Amino acid sequence: MTLFKKFRTQAKIGAIFALSLLGGVVTDTVAQEGAVKNYPDKQIRIIVPYSAGGSTDALARLVAGELTGAWKQTVIVENKPGAGGMIGNDLVAKAAPDGYTVLLGITAIIQGPHLFAKIPYDVDKDLTPVAQIGLSSDFLVVKASFPANTFEEFIKVVKANPGKFSYGSYGAATSSNIHGEMLKKQAGLEMTHIPYKGGAPQLTDLLGGQLDAAFVDVANLRAQIKSDKIKILASTGEKRSEILPDVRTFTEMGYKDFEPYGFFTFFLPSKTPKPIVDKLSNEILRLLRTPENKAKIEGMGLQATFTGADALAPLMKRDSEIWGKVIKEGNIKVEQ
């Protein structure tokens, strides 16, 4: 074979290989475009990383019902509690990026990286925010038999009995847990932390008298604000809650860094095509902006928010930096 013929043969082989690669790329692109155009064409799962019955669960079921009606595709809610929400978060982070496995996460998802050396997923790299639908505050609540009727009395009693009392959170490494550790540090208290797999079981034990005190989120607390089985002593957040205007905030009582609110935000795996992210984001916000659904969210004691995918990335970064500063400066430590 002459040198020229050999060159021509190699060139043909190279061209055939290049065309086969290009054909594969084109086929993949067409398939992806078809998947985006037809989305959704099968069942969608919303993963709630906490137990059934809590505020996260209630919001997920509200959205699932609305999407099912609007898209004529079944949308189900699956509860995957454990490890302060990390089990459910990790499931979605590692799911196929096709828009059919959705996470409803809370603030703990951006607090965890500042608390733990090892987390099985990278929030920034593995998950993308889709829609934020609510903000919440936590309340310091004690059982009815607790020997204190005011926040000041609570501090006095706990200080006088180091290690005797416990406080419950709705999950390890959640805002509830962090708020408890912040109060312990700033007030000089010794209390045992008891983490629960969600707000519903936490509140059940508090109402039953098995738990001395707890930081309870407003959505779970709302139905029990008039109960004679508990006493509500203080609130997180920048200002007093509209549903409990007589309950003072930690800030107005001289405590630091209790102003940030918790959030409820939907996430998808990070490699989900942008058109699918946008379609899900726009539909969730469209459905929840109705007066009826806005009232349902606010009826849980939450601030209804309607923030879409494009605006959420910088908000997540800002909130992560705020919580990172609070955790570092407060030397907050939680058990993993």
UniProtKB/TrEMBL annotation:
Family annotation (Pfam families): TctC (PF03401)
Matches recorded under Gene3D superfamilies: Bordetella uptake gene, domain 1, Periplasmic binding protein-like II
Domain of life of the organism encoding this protein: Bacteria
Family annotation (InterPro entries): BUG, Bug_dom1
Cited CDD domains: PBP2_Bug_TTT
Matching SUPFAM superfamilies: Periplasmic binding protein-like II
Homology family: Belongs to the UPF0065 (bug) family.
Protein name per UniProt: Tripartite tricarboxylate transporter substrate binding protein
Native source organism of the sequence: Sheuella amnicola
